[in-house]
Fold each of these.
Amino acid sequence: MTVEITVPTIPLDFEEYDPSRIDVWDEYISVKDEKRRLVQAIMNAEIPYLIESEKGQGKTLLVHTICKENNIALVDEPVGSGTRKSDLIGTKELNRDGTAFALGILPKAIEVANHFGHACLYCDEGNAQDHEIQKWWNRICDGRKSITANGKKYKLNPECKLAIIWTINPSSYAGVNSMTEDLRSRFIGSVWEHPTDAHFEKVVNWNDVSSELVKQPLLVLVKDLFSLRQKGDVEYALSIRDVVQFCNHYRQVLKDEENSSKTLEIVIREVVLVKYSDAAERELVKIRANDTFGVSL
């Protein structure tokens, strides 16, 4: 029987997770009741909450906004296909004082929640992690709410709260893992639909953007490219983020270009076509953009 030798644990810098330091870089505009539902999930912090949606719909901004507004400590660290057990649980490190243990994301979140009384652990695109790695989330996401690291059991104190929020892209995305069945069963949540014209109308700043020349054709192209992605002809569909980029860049370029057609061509190339790394897909999108906007790229 192998006995694990524990080493000193590197203390956390709790100031790093103080709610006052949360970055909110834009105003989140609710489309339906998604903000209210997520506020309830984070404030109650009883069951992990899952949001499945297309990229660029403001999921990360929403989590940051809610935590900032409600003075909730936020643990937000990147995960992906390269995430290892040591990233989640922790690992031994050598420093000038010898060997010490650096806590991983999961015990760190518990410690932050116990320190502040209420914290949110945010995992963006969690299903990018390999299935074997996803299994390490099971224990913290059920009634145990605990993790063993460096020979010590880290457990959420009874009077403290830890909200766990996962966001994932649809499994139809190329190269995206599914979420394991046993982990997904531990979550409640919502699936956000692809944005409609009404969503774009509410969220996007259309000031100084011609409805006839830009807005209407752009919304048609968004639908067209989403349909192409659904059929597997392209891997990328335009999101709210892309449409906001398009309008902002259009206003900027229009200041330098007197010709509106020239402005459109520049913006389509620099905002839309640049998103497609595959030459065949880029050519297909170029053809659709020419037809939709009446330009010649």
Amino acid sequence: MSKYAENTMLIMRVMRHAQAAVKSRFVQQVVPKKLTIVQFNALLHLHWYGGESGMTISELGEHLGLAHSTASGLVDRLERDGWTVRRKCDTDRRQNRIQLTEKSQQLFQDRTDSATDFWHQTIGQLTPEEQDDLIKSLTRLKQVMDKPVWPSYDQLHPRDPGHVKERLEAELDELAHAKLTSMGTRFILAEMAEQQNQHELAAYLKQVASEEIRHANQIFELLGHEQGLKAALSDLIRQDRVVLEELLDLVDTAQTVNHKESLELLQRIVQDNKRYKRWFSNMFKQID
């Protein structure tokens, strides 16, 4: 390897080491705050691009590459933990804008302080002459570098009709699946309400769950995702087979740790699932 190549590799290693050292110090500060990587990225985008006015959920979702429903759930969790707040838009009262709280602002101030402290400690170990030489070398390096040209937000997130349509379809698909998940939750709550003699609440929950199923089916039909009954039943049988395998693994675990209550419950669920499997398989054979 030539001396030129060796020097280039050394400079790159030093730069990467410095970046990693600054980042690791900040991560040590963030970890106790129990922020996930996705949550922290959302705060970063609000900090960089939101300004004082903040961003709408759709704008934040575009920046993060997330569907509207996913971005909305992310914001819900950040707001619950005091990192963000929703405020009405000044120009359109129908819209909410997501803004950082003082807690988040302090987080980024701590980040700046951490980086400054790192460089004070690091540069402080060099003599004044070494500092001057380093500054001259880095200044010269900056002068010979090409000025970075970043793609614009519009280039990274094209809004041509085809792209917008694809994003709409993806968000509709996610909405349909979210409704199916919500439907299961409503049926569970309805059963709990029945057990507590809250019959009116149970009836309403079941009604809403049925409407959620209808909405999901309508969305799937709109997207052209509807299946024939036999194909859908075949998919269900395959999914049940996977669930049964996972249940059997859980039974083995419960036996290993000798957790009797869990074992009894899991064994009942296994028997129920086997019964479902037999029944659906028989019905599948009878469908033309």
